[in-house]
Amino acid sequence: MRNSGLGKKLIILVLILAVPGFLYYLLTVGGKNRYKGLNYFGPKKLSGSFHKFHGEKIPDTTYHKLPDFSLSDQYGKPVTTAGFEKKIFIASFFYTGCPDVCKNINDNVRKLALNYRKNDMVYFLSISVDPQHDTPEKLKEYATRYKDIPAGKWLFLTGDTSSVYNLARNGFLVNALKVNDKEFVFSDKLILIDAEKHIRGYYTGTSAPEVNKLNDEIKVQIAEELRKIKAPN
Question: What sign does the CA torsion over 167, 181, 140, 109 have?
Fold first, then answer.
């Protein structure tokens, strides 16, 4: 009986010593090999350079990036691409005179912004497709309905019509079209942008399941950015 008890104690001791080491392996070695980041969207091309993985020479790919932009926020302050250096942001399009669809989208953005209100890595940009009427003053008034979001976390942006529409079509790769003074065609997508200004996902802003998916994938992107910061040079 004594030998049996001693044997059980030895097995327990071995497990106590072995399990942490095995978990460490999964997190450090296995985890790195199994980690799968989000997709890249937009045109891509081979850069002409290469990197090695497990001894194999693999061509590097250049992915679509947002062009530099310069808009104004609801406080009348300039907002540029440089202001989001090493930051993740979620962009969407709207206009203050929009019917219920914009309210639906922005209510969902509000939920996301509340989730990340204390995270300095994540921001939200809502860009007006009616810049002729949506002045900074009007955007500031519109933004008061979302007073529970910290200042600077969620920016409502405007600019000249040409800049906004070109940015939508050629930067974010979504539709933006003025039909008349009161009607606009624009995308209902929430667009996830990584710290290098690549597009990493499109999500229907009126769909609760899609917004929940975005919430999860923001976390995946945060993990990817942290890996880059911690990776040795």
Answer: negative
CA quadruple 159, 104, 187, 173: dihedral, nearest 10: 70
pLDDT in tens, 16-44: 444 444 443 444 444 444 557 999 999 98
CATH number belonging to the domain at 67-228, selected among 3.30.230.10, 3.40.190.170, 1.20.1530.20, 3.40.30.10 = 3.40.30.10
With CA atoms as reference, report the closest residue to 221 among 119, 151, 150, 127: 119
End-to-end CA distance of the chain: 57
Cβ(70)–Cβ(159) under 8 Å?
Answer: yes
Dihedral sign of CA atoms 218, 41, 130, 158 in order? positive
Least reliable range by pLDDT among 5-14, 36-45, 209-218: 5-14
Cα gap 155→144, rounded to integer Å: 12
The residues facing 93 across adjacent strands are 127
* Dihedral angle over CA of 23, 24, 26, 32, nearest 10: 160
Give residue 203's Cα distance to chain centre: 11
Mode of pairing for the β-strands spanning 184-186 and 122-128: unpaired
Residues β-bridged to residue 72: 78, 158
pLDDT in tens, 61-72: 889 999 999 999
Helix (H, G, I), strand (E, B) or coil at 98: coil
Q: DSSP secondary-structure letter at 64?
A: P
Residues 6+ apart with CB under 8 A from 224: 37, 38, 194
Crossing angle of the two packed helices 100-115 and 208-230, in degrees rounded to 10: 40
